[in-house]
Amino acid sequence: MKKIISIVTLFLFFYSNLQAEEDSKDKNREERKIQKEERIRNNWNRMMPKQNKIQFAGSMGMFSGSVGWYYGRKNQWETDFYLGFIPRMNGEEGHVTITLKETYTPWKLKLNDDVAFEPLTAGIYINKIFGEYFWNRLPEKYPDGYYFWAVNTRFNVSVGQSITFKLNKTALYGKELSFFYEFSTNDLYIISAIGNKSISVPDIVGLSLGIRYRLF
Amino acid sequence: MKAIKYHLRRRWLCLFIPLILNSCDLFEYHPYDTQDFNATDVNTRYIKEIAKNDDSTDTLRFVFTGDTQRHYDETEDLVEAINKRNDIDFVIHGGDITDFGLSKEYQWMYNIFEKLKFPFVTLIGNHDVIGQGKDIYKKVFGDYNFSFVSHRTRFICLNTNALEFDYSTPVPDFDYMLSFVNDSADINNTIVVMHVPPYDVEFNNNAALMFNYIIENYKNVRFCLHAHDHNLKVNDFFNNGIIYYGCEDISGRNYMVFTVTPDSYHYTVETF
Lengths: 216, 272
Prior knowledge:
By secondary structure, chain A is α+β, with helices and mostly antiparallel strands. Chain A has helices at 2-46, 187-193, 201-204; strands at residues 51-56, 63-71, 77-86, 95-104, 109-110, 115-130, 153-166, 176-186, 206-214. The N and C termini of chain B lie far apart (61 Å).
């Protein structure tokens, strides 16, 4: 009887020990899992868009809205992804456009603690319009090289200025709010102006207005 | 100090208000947008003018040009050169006023041709169709097919850019063409004008013989005109004596002048 008890005790002891070992293993695993999750979350967080823009005109829609990122040593680079809308008007169907835009802002002049002026913003953007008559690759019916450009894709350049207001003292939530304007033109306009004295810069540029909101 | 500030502000406003007013054109939603042109139905307007100026004399003289796309300087010179003349009745543009079918291209070209002191009619070219270009053409110039009479001669201007359209738009439009076979107008001659000539890759070549058959049935067809080839061309495509004349594009800095009388016709190529 004594023997049996001692064996059972021993077994229980070992078993509980084993259980504890397994428990700690599980704990480690859990921790690692949490850490890994945290890391993945952080990585995704870093990719979270930090700014939004609303822009009027600019050859990418009547109104376009963006989600975007800013980065660089002095936050001088911005990448924005826009969705634009051209409403039904002049008897034409409405259209949707998408735009990928890179903006470079070399200088930021502090006017006071809350207001800064950006004397130059330079951008390049690719715009795609969706619609029946807007193709990207030359349709099969045409002989090779019949038309050389993609009708739905425009390459644009822009220059502008902006003024930025810090929001930390105001009731508005967020980091800063900017107002900007831009002059822009596209590849086909530049091609048209080349070699023609009668087509001047004012003929080929368009104006657009926008608001940029930085959340954090 | 306050006064200075006030004036400064006022001057700013003076600078700013016209800028805003003038900038309505500056706000572009898309290059293929059909903007609000101040001109609509240009062909109809000038056809009326052609009819008004028509003195029904025996000698008809007109300028034929085409493919002015992206050559704005040359086109300005062309308009200047034609305006120096006094001997022509009207100008026919054989199509391709734009290269990309863009709204701005239409506007630029129209602004130049508007300076002509003669009436001008404009056909649709294959480049003018691209994107929403065809809608801009329709708005600014009018129907793809149109016709007019001058000096007892029927001009039938046809959309032959078949490759740009699908079957929902007949190109060439036989119904339209057939409507002139028993022309009720008081005419002695017929001249057919198109952008793309038969047997071009852009033409609906399955329809070429039918196209020719209808033209053969027109009253006294003198000749046909086309643009699109960018070179001077003289062809008898169907070996029936109906000659197709093709004009050079505007970069060659020349235009064609056709003189048509009841007995004969001749053309000259004028350089500028």
